Amino acid sequence: GSYQSKSAEHDINNTETKDLIDVRADEVKLVKSGRSELSGNVSLAYDERVLLAKTAYIHRDPKTERVTKIELLDNVIYREPGRMMHASRVQLLPDNKTGEVHNVLYRFEHHHMHAILPAFGKADLVKRFENRDLLLKGATYTTCSPKDKAWMLKADEIRLYESRSEEHTSE
C-alpha cells in the first residue's frame, strides 16, 4: 500500500479553484512564455479533470503569458466525472475546455433508461467539446463486460452527447 497526504491530493470539487490549473511533477522547467516542460509523475487537475502522465508540456502565449495548450505524453490516465481514459497522448485547450485524446482505451458511464451502464471501447481519437460531448474516431463501443463479447459496435465515428442520452454513428 501507499499513503498520500491530503495536501498532495487534487481537490477537483473545490469551487474556489475551478479555473485554476494545479500541476505537479518530479522535475519542472517553467518559463513565463513559450513551452514549459514537466517530467516524472506528472499530475494535472482542472475543471473536474485529473490527468496523470510521465511527461507534460505547458504552452503560454508570449504576450499574455496565459496557458494556451497543455500536452501530456507517455501512458496518460485521464479522469473526469463518469469517464476514464488511458491514452498515449492528450492535448488540452484550457480557454475553451476542449481537448483531444489519442490512442485511447476508455470506460464511460452510459445512462440508459433508469440505469447507468459502463461502456467500454477503444478509439484512435477522442475529441472533447466544451459542452462535454465527445466525438470518437476509429472506435469501438459496447456496454458488455470486457469478458462477455455479446456485441460490439465498430464505426469510423461515434458521437456521444452529454446533454442528451443518445449516440450517433457513421461508417
Question: Can you offer a commentary on this structure?
Answer:
This protein has no helices and 11 strands. The protein has about 170 residues and is an all-beta fold. Strands 1, 2, 3, 4, 5, 6, 7, 8, 9, 10 and 11 form an 11-stranded antiparallel β-sheet that branches. The termini are far apart. The model is unreliable at about 1-15 (pLDDT under 50).
Question: Mind sketching the topology for me?
Answer:
Blueprint: E1 22-24, E2 27-29, E3 34-46, E4 49-60, E5 67-80, E6 83-93, E7 98-112, E8 115-128, E9 134-141, E10 153-160, E11 167-170
Antiparallel strand pairs: 1-3, 2-3, 3-4, 4-5, 5-6, 6-7, 7-8, 8-9, 9-10, 10-11
Structure keywords:
single chain; 171 residues; mainly beta; 11-stranded antiparallel β-sheet; 61% strand; elongated; disordered N terminus
